[in-house]
Amino acid sequence: MSRCSDRRSSKAFTLVELLVVIAIIGILVALLLPAIQAAREAARRSKCQNNMKNVALAVLNYESSRKRYPPGFVSQPSEYETWGWAVFSLPYLEEQTLYDRLRPTETMVQNIGSMSTLGNRNLTDALLSAKTNASDLQALQTVLPVFRCPSDTTPDLVPCGWGPGNATCTAGAPGLTPDTSDGDQWTRSFQGKGAPANFYPPASNYIGNKGMSDTDCSGSGSGTAASPWVANDASCAANGVFFGNSKISSTKISDGTTKTFMIGERNRFCMAGTWLGGRNPVGGSENHSTLWTLGHVWEPLNSPHTLNYNTCTEGFASPHPGGGFFAFCDASVHFVSDDIEFNTMGNTRTCSVKLTNPAPCMSTFSTLKIGVYQRLAWRDDAVPIDDTSF
């Protein structure tokens, strides 16, 4: 009897043995978890890079068809929402059906805000229609994964904290409502003269390169048939590849397509952007302007400053540690370190390409040269770049 009892008890774990096993499992999990997380992030980085390449290829396919890049945005009067470059790339991203539903125009249709056109239309008019047309609202809020970096946590629809005047974006808005339960301060809105109340645009982490300056895009007229809007092309021109009514082709990128940014990242910290376009093309403060879809390099890559004007909400930033991905104008995608040489060389953010007032942008002065970061964004600065400098 005693032997049987001893045999049975010898098969059981003691409390000490059980604690040792649990401790070993805990150590193994602690060792494996960082490796698993690193593997997941590597997969997300690869997907982000691939998405950006597909978008860049779509722009080049557009160029192959039209002999120029799509316009950075369609110039039009103040506070009217405007289509941006990404929407014109949709047919080359296998989104022809969505493009046909949106019916975007590459040149402003006069009588803006009237919704009278049956053909291609302004973004403002599409947004006005969305106030009563659920199909238009759904199309305008379509989430497109190809414009999202999987490492970024921006909601699929970009939230907002406030709009014109004291208008507030609130929960329970029409259409889809983004999750803002984490308390982030989204200090901007997309609500111009057309958007429905509490309109949230679909997010994009891929922002077009406007160059070194934050040029405005002024013009004359009110956009009616009696007073047509006419853009001032000299004030619209920037030194990147996308700007107001831009018609840049690869032949105009004299620094070389392999040495010029086409698209860069912008993350949640800097409030991302949208593939739709811009909120206010004339005189819009940075949080509410065409910088919803464009960015410039007057701010450093991964600048730590946000939630205010003249901060990273108008530049480029990435969720990937140490730098960010950029698609170049040959559709190659490179990871650029946030330690890249940065030097605006005294240029203001409003320096001009074609005007003498404001002052023209300078790429060299005496023995000084703009930084490598600025050179990569400026398509024709004529300042050489060493392949190992980025």
Structure notes:
The chain is α+β, with helices and mostly antiparallel strands. The chain has one domain (36-389). 25% of the residues lie in helices and 11% in strands. It is built from eight helices and 13 strands. The chain has helices spanning 2-10, 15-66, 85-88, 96-102, 123-130, 134-140, 233-236, 372-377, and strands at 82-83, 203-204, 206-211, 219-220, 230-231, 261-265, 273-274, 277-278, 294-296, 323-328, 333-337, 364-365, 368-369. It has a five-stranded mixed beta sheet with strand order 9-3-6-10-11. Strands 1-8 form a two-stranded antiparallel sheet. Strands 2-7 form a two-stranded antiparallel ribbon. A hairpin with a 4-residue loop joins strand 10 and strand 11. The longest helix has 52 residues, at 15-66. It is globular. The termini are far apart. The relative contact order is 0.14.
Number of domains: 1
Give the helix level as a range of percent: 10-25%
Strand content: 5-15%
Strand/helix succession: HHEHHHHEEEEHEEEEEEEEH
| Total E-strand runs | 13
User: What does the largest sheet look like?
Assistant: 5 strands, mixed
Q: Which word captures the global form? A: globular
Low-confidence stretches: 162-167, 171-175
Instruction: List the strand order in the largest sheet.
Output: 9-3-6-10-11
Individual helix count? 8
Mean pLDDT reading: 88
Given helix and strand content, the structural type is: alpha+beta
Radius of gyration: 25 Å
